[in-house]
Amino acid sequence: MSNNPFGDMFGDIMGMLGKTGPDAWFETARTLSLNVARGAEGDPNPDPALRARVEDFAPLIARHLTATFSLATEETFECVNRSTLADDALTNWRPLIEPFITASAPALPEAMMTNPLVGQLASVLGPLMTGFQLGSVAGHFSENAWSLAAVPLPRQRHDRHVVVNNVEAFATAWSLDVTTALIFALAQEMVASEFLTQPGTTDALRAVLLDATRESLANQGDIMTKLAGMVNPDDLASLMGSPESLLGSIDIPEETAANREVNAAVAVLRAVFDYVALWITEQIVGPAPLLREAYRRYLLNDAHGEEGAAALFGITLRGPHQELALTFVDQVAEKYGIATFSALLRADGLPRHEELPDAHQWVARVNSSPLA
Which residue has the higher pLDDT, 113 or 335? Predict the structure, then answer.
C-alpha cells in the first residue's frame, strides 16, 4: 500500500510542483486554462472564409482610427481560437499579478500541520491556488470573449487577436449579420489595442489597479483557512479534481475606495472602446441598431467569463458605475466629439470616481491639464 494517504494522483501533482519550481503556479494556470478553453468539443481554428472577410476591413478600420485620434494605427491583426486567447490573457495578466505571488503567505492553521504531506501542500498552496484561479478564469474568459478588449487592462504587446468563432456564435445567437458583428469586434480590439499600449494610459491604469488587485488576491488567505477543514484524503482528492469548487466559495470583499477608482476607469475605457467601435462599424455598413441592442443584452446576460476575469483584479463589470460610464461617454461624444477621448491616452486622462456622474467636470480637468 502506498505511503501517500492521498493516492497516486495527488502524489503526481506534488511531484510536478517540485519539478517546475517558482513558475509552478503559472504552468498550472496555463494547463488548466487550455483544458477549459478547449472544452469537450475541442477548439477549432476559425473558418478561412470568415478570416478573409475580417481581413478585408482591417485597413478601413485603421484609417478611421488614425483620422480620429491622430494615431499611427497599424492594420495587422490575427484571427485565433479560444486557446490562443486564453494564453494571451495569461501572458497579459501575469505581470499584473506576479508581484503579489511572492508576497508573504498567511500563517497556516494548526490543523494543516498535523500531516507532513499537508504541510508540504501548504508551503506551495498560495501560489498553487492562484494558478488554479488564474487558469480557470482565463479559460472561461476565452469561452465567449472576442478579444482582450473585453476587460481593459494594460498590455505588454501590440498583438491584436480576435476569436472569430466566438463572434460568429454571438451573431448566430442574436440573428445578426456575421460580417457586421466581425467588423464591430475587430474595431473594438483595434481601438483597445491602441489605447492600452500607450504609456500614459497604461501607467495610469496600473496605478489604480495596484491596490484593487492586492485586495482581490488577499482572498487567498480565506482559501488557506477553508483548506484547513479538508485534511482527509477524499476531500483533497475532490479539490484536485475540481479546484474551482473551493475558489467559488470565497467571499467577495465589499466595495472599497481602491476598486471604486479602478471601476470608474475601466468602465469608461470599456464604454469608449464600444462607442468608437460601433461608430466605426456604422460608418462602414450604416446604422446597426440590432447589433447595438444585442451587444447590450449580451453584456447584461452572457458575459460571465469576462466578469470573472475582471473580478480577479478587483473590477466589477456590473452596477451603477457601468450606467454612469455609458452616460459619461455619450455626453462627451455628443457635446465635445469623439476625438476628445484622446485625453485618455495621457497619464492624467483616466476619469476619477467623483467625475463619473459629471462628464463636463472631467473635460474641464483634462483640457486645463499641463499635459493637454
Answer: 335
